[in-house]
TrEMBL record:
The entry's keywords: Cytoplasm, Methyltransferase, RNA-binding, rRNA processing, S-adenosyl-L-methionine, Transferase
Gene Ontology MF terms in the entry: 16S rRNA (adenine(1518)-N(6)/adenine(1519)-N(6))-dimethyltransferase activity; RNA binding
Protein known as: Ribosomal RNA small subunit methyltransferase A
NCBIfam families recorded: ksgA
EC number of the protein: 2.1.1.182
Keyword RNA-binding listed: yes
Ribosomal RNA adenine methylase transferase N-terminal domain residues: 27-195
Database matches in Pfam families: RrnaAD (PF00398)
Encoding gene, per UniProt annotation: rsmA
Length: 261
């Protein structure tokens, strides 16, 4: 498809980009309502697709920007909405720090299933500040995002996202609300930003990966190659047994552990 021949509404989904377009008007309105857009807000949408959500956002937001990887869709959206700030780019290598300067920022997106987790990993650790955020993801991912310590679904993504934000499941979405229909249910998750922790993000990521690569092993076993008096004091201060496993640690404990390593 090219700019001169078709609009975003007739764009054929590209399986290579994981495109499943939201087509249900009620779901779109619920997402927009959750953002609670006010005068002066800036909305940044990730992956607008055919623009079903974008068109409703454009009626509410004073400033609206979208990040879209599909060049054909960018041309079509710009033709429909001339005032729209369209950015042709990939969420996996976008310079996310740049949008933190936008006034009263609200972030939203129906994220492609195949890249949702890595995009959120980047967004929450690099965009600051935002006033609200709302993402649609695969239901399984939503359960991981909101999982509590000690649960089977609690893992690296849970720790990382909850270090920077407070996630909350808002509502579930049926496959019938998309074209083409995905094979799984989706969930809309809302996020409230937390103050950035005083920790090196790269080192925190290393700690998370180190522990969850061996999540069934005990902390004493996983950390034996870096064992120290400082680590022993940390365990005592936190009231943690060295036989505990990684999924028992809170996001805050991952941060303080990182300072010891």
């Amino acid at each position: 498809m090219t700019f001169g021949h078709a609009g975003a509404g007739t764009h054929r989904p590209k399986k290579s980009l994981g495109q499943n377009f939201l087509v249900d008007g009620n779901v779109i309105r619920k997402i927009v309502d959750q953002l609670a857009i006010e005068a002066g807000d800036t909305v940044f949408e990730i992956g607008p697709g055919r623009g079903a959500l974008t068109r409703v956002l454009a009626q509410k937001a004073q400033r609206l920007f979208v990040l879209e990887k599909d060049r054909d869709l960018v041309y079509a959206l710009k033709a429909q909405l001339p005032d729209l700030g369209c950015i042709l780019g990939d969420g996996l290598d976008f310079v996310w720090e740049t949008i933190g300067a936008l006034p009263s920022l609200k972030v939203v997106g129906n994220l492609p299933y195949n890249v949702a987790s890595p995009i959120m990993w980047e967004v929450f650790s690099r965009v600051c500040p935002f006033t609200s955020c709302c993402f649609m993801v695969q239901k399984e991912v939503a359960l991981r995002l909101t999982a509590r310590p000690g649960s089977k679904t609690y893992g690296g993504l849970s720790v990382w996202v909850q270090t920077f934000a407070v996630p909350r499941i808002l509502f579930h979405v049926s496959p019938s609300c998309f074209y083409p229909r995905p094979k799984v249910d989706s969930t809309v998750v809302g996020f409230k930003q937390r103050p950035f922790p005083a920790v090196d993000h790269a080192k925190l990521a290393q700690t998370i990966h180190l522990l969850f690569q061996k999540r069934r092993k005990q902390l004493g076993n996983i950390l034996k190659h870096v064992w120290s008096e400082q680590l022993e004091a940390w365990l005592e201060h936190e009231g943690i047994d060295r036989r505990a496993r990684p999924e028992s640690l809170t996001p805050e404990q991952f941060v303080t552990l990182t300072h010891c390593l």
